[in-house]
Design brief:
Elements lengths: L12 E6 L1 H4 L8 H16 L3 E6 L2 H8 L9 H24 L5 E6 L2 H4 L1 H16 L3 E6 L13 H11 L4 E6 L20 E2 L4 H5 L13 H14 L3 E5 L5 H6 L6 E3 L8 H9 L5 E4 L1 H10 L3 E2 L3 E5 L7 E5 L5 E6 L4 H7 L7 H5 L6 E3 L4 E3 L2
Parallel strand pairs: 1-2, 1-5, 2-4, 3-4, 5-7, 6-8, 9-12
Antiparallel strand pairs: 7-8, 9-11, 10-14, 12-13, 13-15
Helix pairs in contact: 3-4, 7-9, 7-11
Amino acid sequence: MRDMRKSFKDCRRIVVKVGTSTLTHPNGQLNLGRMEHIVRELADLHNQNIEVLLVSSGAIGTGANLMGLKKVPRTLPEKQALAAIGQGALLHMYEKFFAEYGKTVAQVLLTREDLDERMRYLNATNTLLAILNMKVIPIINENDTVVVEEIKFGDNDMLSTVVAGIVDADLLIILSDVDGFYDMDPRTCEGAELQSEIMEITYNMELNSTNRGFAFSSGGMLTKLKGARVCMAAGIPLVIANSSEKNVLRRIIAGEKLGTLFVPRQEKMQARKKWIAFGTVLHGKLIIDSGAATALVKRGKSLLASGVTEVEGDFERGTVVAVLTSDGREMARGMANYSADEIRRIAGKKSGDIERILGGKDYDEVIHRNNLWVKC
């Protein structure tokens, strides 16, 4: 297999995500030297006619520091208040640094709800593309001031994945305080080895990546793996690297083997399935049996009622739901042809029985394969 890293020099649109641990010192103060280095590298890439989008954490941590707090409070209203305090200060520093290199930036705040409807998803996509067309660098964060738990991206690792998907980026780079993905936790296992390339994300990899570690951050390696799984399925390469490496972005783009590369599928995702995978809020869950799981993954089939064993949540027809295996792993997402109550009534039954049970049948499938995105 050819070295994918060598193709990074041809990237024309990249998304870079920087975490709170990258932007701040351990005491919560902004790491101005690190910010300046990252901005300079982004500006230089922009000078090479590479479109760059920056997904930046740090608003809540910055707000906490401005208020003299040693750690982020637990309640959502307090976090939202700190986000409102910190977002302006954070953007002001970015504007100052980018202006030194003659660059204009635009603040973009998103929530899951902004992308849940197809038209709003397209509008967000077109807005980002218009900003890029104006030769402006978007600085993107979750709108923590107004978001509620049900419509959160969860953290900016997942947000960066969504952004990379909706703008069809050539590469996503996540800068963190670790060198990449290790086979074991390097903080507790002396023999842990850095993985240069990952071809497949396994359940055990996710199971062993649950530590967080930084007091002001919201993510960890687990959220990065979840984002990487989506990127790989969408055909977008992702690199996780240490932000403390000198000229880290330039070296990655030049093809140097820094960090961990998550190798994507060769084919690009269709636009509709991209929206299902990246944009929508999940409104419920369908648990399926092993036979149905095999049919979806191995044979590219639709999901039939006969394969559904359990339904969670209360959702209507046309909403997007998660499809889980019997052991609770999310393996797919799709647009349901029937409501939660209807699926409960027909679960485990043959397609030929649907009309008798429901008094009518609009579809043979619970989720048609054209409206189904399979992760693995």
